[in-house]
Amino acid sequence: MLLNKARAAGWRVAVRGTDAARLAWLDEKLWLGANDGFLPHGIAGGPHDSDQPILLTVGAADNGATCVMSVDGAAVTAEEVASLERVCILFDGNDPDQLNTAREHWKALKDASASAQYWSEESGRWEKKAET
Prior knowledge:
Helix content is 31%, strand content 20%. The protein is α/β, with parallel strands linked by helices. The protein has a single domain, classed as DNA polymerase III subunit chi (Rossmann fold, 3-Layer(aba) Sandwich).
């Protein structure tokens, strides 16, 4: 859903993870999506990285990304938040390790005076819970 919204906004997206195998899993899931909702994407390291509107990567993106979606605790800096259209840090709030990592990211961004919002869907729909 977030990738669709980012593409609808015209953003090029880097999905940044910490594990190449996990990104390969995500790549497979994106290929198995609905035929009418295909999301053009690739895994970093290919010959056409700069052409990919969505690039799955464990490092820096080479696709002119204007939006970074961090998964599995991948780091995001305050400088990136300031220079990009959007940064999303995605985590499972029911996983204590992911929750702690997300809290560390929130604190680091807050301490760096980066603009940040925390959204939750625990009520069944997305609601803004906090903002800096």
